[in-house]
Write a structure and sequence with these properties.
The chain is mostly helical. The protein is about 70% helix and about 0% strand. Helix 12 packs antiparallel against helix 13.
């Protein structure tokens, strides 16, 4: 949103902007975003920081219970990433396609089911071996999660179908993300059951070493990367003025990325089943395809240059894609690293690759996009909000420290003693950013109570809008939807 009376030219359109009244807010995103912040500050980043300190004291990345580590990772993927995806999807996707959200009354049941599932699954998995009902509780939680995800994905698909909008590359990426959302939830449910009920430690290690890497690929390269690219294709040109590649180029990139993610999962499982190390060498093909496909989409944005329309969120987004490049580069250098370090498999280096993409890319994108859209959703002038330099510096410092020191533990054990500091920096950054985001949502909620007796409508970014009337939407969003 911009000051009253300002006119902007966008995509050869001149749009008169109007300040959004404080009552013109929709609340559908709030419960998802707030719950995601609560989960990341409990089961997610905070628990992860505690685990990291324990690893530092032990001097070994494999010294902790795999169930405890997986429970933390589950909370991060389903709670932090999953709930933000659902909140953003319910709030904005119908608006992208200028239609109404299908079956809006299912939003609250989906939210409650998803949240209950995450809590039950995380507690059950995290307490594996401590009580007899742990596996059953985790299983019930996983079933609830899968049910909620199926409801969400069905609503989004039905919403797009009702819109009768053209099937663009952005929609293609979003739909592929929905596919991976369901697929990874189903596999996670199966993987949790098999690992928590494994009869012997050898059997447990077999399941973890065979299926955990493909599961993480589905969650990170599948769900998160596809969804972020789909939303970026929709919003970045409108919000920040970046140039996009041709639709044909983006379609090719979508096809390459889809084949590559499926390929890396299947090749790894085939390698583990057969024991043929030559198959592992073929992983370089999908990894190269992933890097090339992402470069085809992102390179035309020229993220090394300042955005045409600056905003406090821009630094998060530009740096997030830098971290994505770092993660992919490290992944491609994995064979060379193993050869240089003479380690058959480095848990430290592989974990550093994952951290660069999960915190450096995914978390920074969540922080950046939400910092841009939450003021708009809540009718708040972004000119008066915090610049977020503090959280930005701390989250990047923590991520850099984690990626570097974790890798260096392969070379000297002294780095274990300082690795825990990275977790503290990241927790402080997320808490700082999260409190600011919650404050904006509370401000919007209070404004709604004071000025608007009208009930918010779950189908729209703002309740007094219709698909044909975008006068209260920021001009960038308005243009991107036409």
């Amino acid at each position: 949103m911009v000051a009253q009376g300002r006119r902007v030219s966008l995509n050869d359109q001149v749009i008169q902007t109007t300040p959004t009244p404080s009552r013109a807010v929709d609340t559908i995103h709030r419960r998802f975003f707030v719950t995601a912040i609560i989960l990341v500050m409990t089961f997610g980043a905070t628990w992860g920081a505690w685990l990291l300190w324990r690893i530092g004291f032990l001097g070994n990345f494999t010294g902790l219970s795999v169930h405890e580590i997986n429970a933390h990772g589950h909370a991060q993927i389903f709670g932090w990433v999953g709930l933000f995806i659902m909140g953003m999807g319910y709030q904005a996707f119908a608006r992208f396609w200028q239609t109404n959200l299908a079956a809006p009354r299912l939003v609250m049941p989906a939210f409650v089911t998803m949240t209950a599932g995450i809590i039950l699954h995380t507690i059950g998995q995290g307490t594996s071996g401590q009580w007899s009902a742990a596996a059953g509780v985790a299983l019930v939680g996983g079933i609830l999660e899968l049910a909620a995800i199926l409801v969400f994905c069905t609503q989004i698909l039905a919403t797009f179908r009702a819109s009768q909008k053209p099937f663009t590359p952005s929609v293609g990426f979003i739909f592929m993300a929905l596919f991976w959302f369901v697929a990874m939830a189903a596999m996670d449910l199966w993987h949790t059951h098999t690992t928590m009920t494994a009869p012997t430690r050898d059997r447990l290690l077999w399941f973890v070493s065979t299926y955990q890497a493909p599961l993480r690929d589905m969650q990170v390269h599948g769900l998160a990367v596809f969804m972020i690219l789909g939303v970026s294709l929709q919003l970045l040109p409108a919000l920040y003025g970046v140039r996009t590649a041709s639709a044909k180029r983006n379609w090719i990139a979508l096809a390459m990325l889809s084949i590559a993610v499926a390929g890396e999962c299947l090749i790894f499982v085939a390698y583990r089943w057969t024991g043929l190390h030559v198959l592992a060498a073929f992983l370089m093909i999908p990894w190269l395809m992933i890097a090339i496909a992402i470069a085809m989409i992102v390179w035309p944005w020229k993220l090394w240059r300042p955005f045409q329309r600056p905003d406090r969120s821009a630094k998060f987004i530009r740096t997030a894609y830098l971290w994505l490049a770092v993660s992919l580069t490290m992944l491609l250098l994995l064979p060379a690293y193993l050869a240089a370090s003479k380690i058959p498999f480095s848990h430290a280096y592989y974990g550093a690759i994952r951290h660069a993409i999960t915190v450096g890319f995914i978390s920074l994108m969540i922080m950046g996009i939400s910092a841009r859209v939450v003021p708009m959703f809540n009718g708040i002038n972004p000119a008066g909000v915090s610049s977020l330099w503090g959280p930005f510096i701390l989250i990047n410092a923590g991520c850099f420290l984690r990626v570097s020191t974790q890798t260096l533990t392969d070379w000297h054990p002294a780095f274990y003693s300082i690795i825990g500091i990275s977790g503290i920096l990241e927790v402080i950054a997320l808490a700082w950013w999260g409190m600011g985001l919650v404050a904006l949502m509370r401000q919007g909620k209070q404004s709604l109570r004071e000025t608007a007796p009208a009930k918010p409508h779950a189908n729209r970014l703002f309740p007094n809008q219709t698909p044909a009337n975008d006068s209260t939407v920021s001009p960038a969003i308005s243009s991107s939807l036409r």
